[in-house]
Amino acid sequence: MDAKPAAIPFCRPTIEQEEIDTVVASLKSGWITSGPKVVEFEKMFRERFKQPHALSLNSATAGLHVVLAALGIGPGDEVITTSMTWPATCNVAELLGAKSVFTDVVDGTLLMDPADLKKRLTPKTRAVIPVHHCGAPADLDAIHAVIDPYAKSIGHKITLVEDAAHAVGTAYKGRPTGTSSDPVVFSFHPIKNITTGEGGMVVTNDDALAERMRILKFHGVQKDSWTRYASGGSPRYEVIEPGWKYNMLDLQAGLGIEQLKKVERFNARRTELAKLYDELLKNVPEVRPLARPDYPHVHAWHLYVVRLDLKSVDIGRDEFIGELGQEGIGAGLHFTPVHLHRHYAKKYGYKRGDLPVVEQAGEEILSLPLYPLLTDADVRRVVETMKRVLARHKKKADRSSGVGAAARHA
Ligand SMILES: *Cc1c(COP(=O)(O)O)cnc(C)c1O
Q: For a surface tag, which of 54, 375, 387, 394 has the fewest beta carbons within 10 Å of its beta carbon?
């Protein structure tokens, strides 16, 4: 029997010698929690996006949490996001006692639908969180055009918060994600374009918001441990309001520093691989890549998502992912619509049919392996394997006699 080729995992972070060396150096230095590397990593973000504030955290979830908390969002308030997201985006609103509201998505791109957003604004809306799904930017101008006049009419601010977990390297109409005047939250989870193991960063140009986030992300005390122990600093600390323990370690920030230096190379490779998928999938009619926004943008290619044409095959998406897995190809699911998850459906009475576009997509999408360590040959193998699995499952009507049986043995 032939040896099976090694499996192609869905994701694998690119960790090189520099990343290993910096972590070892931190371990040997005697300072492993928040310290000089965190300071440097934050500075890199400030300089990259020309922002006065960049706050590192131990996850993007923590970032979203402190943004909403620092905005003063709580019971009686509503936070709108798209149902096509990781639950962190809305869980944090729930944890603050606010009400989560979900929009449908634009058919094709699966980004927040500004027209649907318009219908969901109420006088209680305090924040709107579009998601740059897969690394494609949400239509921020169209979203502002919906929010801003409404906020003016009700006489209070509605803050747009960008969930940029997929968007290190994205740009919208010539504006890099991270340069807007709205708070932007990045993630460095191992699957994302750059990683710190776990980690996140909020950038903002709002001094007051940044100050409150800084307090909330570290116990609610006014100084973090590094500045407390730095020479000349006061040993005293004081709780302003109860906060969380969300600080990033130097171990993590060191990784981030090295990764951020390489993000252009990483994303260039992601883009090449995405182009190769585009090319190879042209003759696989059963899977269709997501549409790209029609406004000018730079795609960060965090994820390569395709939709399975359920009408042409006799299996569902979950089985398709399962069979790919059996053939050594890892695939992911980003995402299942959040409004139908038990907590949200039960609490707010959402049911199937409420957000039809995202619900349909939620049954059809899967994410293919996409990361700099993949070779062109890996991508070809992913596509060939998909073709083989699809051939086994073509609906009868599409099958010339005997092909099915032959394909089963292929
Ligand atoms: C990964 C992700 C998050 C959460 O990021 P963490 O750093 O894991 O907390 C939030 N939103 C979206 C859309 C994500 O994909």
A: 375
